[in-house]
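Hello again, I could really use a second opinion on something today. I've been puzzling over a protein and I'd love to understand its fold better. I'm sending you its amino acid sequence along with the backbone structure tokens. It would help a lot if you went through both lines with me. I've dropped the whole record in just underneath, so have a look.
***
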Amino acid sequence: MPVISTPSSHLPSVLADWYRSDARDLPWRRPEFQAQFGPWGTLVSEFMLQQTPVTRVIPHLESWLTRWPTPTAMSHATPAEVVQQWANLGYPRRALWLHRAAIEITERHDGAVPRDVDALLALSGIGDYTARAVAAFAFGDRHPVVDTNTRRVIARAIEGRSQPGPAASRDLVVMNTLLPDADEESAVFNAAMMELGATVCTSRVPKCERCPIAARCAWLTSGSPDTGDERRRQARYEGSDRQARGAVLKTLRDSDAGEMPLDAVIHDWPDGVQRDRAIDSLIADGLAEASGHTLRLPR
């Protein structure tokens, strides 16, 4: 197990070695994936990975890119088709945002995903993380890429805290100070920090015995104190409006024409008020349309 002399001095080289030998073999990390789909493949994978486990994303990503291998191909799809294809990935508004982004890329950038972070941020559904992830992983540019896993590694290894605080703009500043100067090395370091947080430095039960930087982790060497958790807790899914919205969309996706009588949509849902609220919110979000007494996927 490699040992580092200070929490940050040798992080890039230690984690790069660990990442190259221990990282998961994920489709979007393979050279052939980048050769076939380029930055568009990276963008689609990043959209899907937002708040969704890797194991659920992989089969959907393959079928999505087979159907729409370029932004231009996807720009010709209908909203109903993209919502249908999104299936059970969750947070279906991401499907509409990705569709809008594909149209914007086609119209503004001649069908090529832009390299510039500001241009990426101007696309629908793209925030600080996704823009920098595409710039770093698809184009190899030096940008700090910070997700929940990265923030947790920084909180523990560098700051000695058991959990990171709420996401803040300072996260990018801190990560930028840790990045190697060279573009290629910085991309590997970004990926390694995320991988470490996802597979070793996990939230509830960190596997410190497997950590390549355990010997100088500020939190571990101070006795792994519980410093509290200020992050906002996600509401329970069971019985939530999110569950009701998902049930409505599944009913529409499973119907022959993507539509059905309004009064037949999850008619047996135990909370009628919640059912109606879920339908109204889906219509407001553009994920469903009501026409007379019929509810359907968006056209």
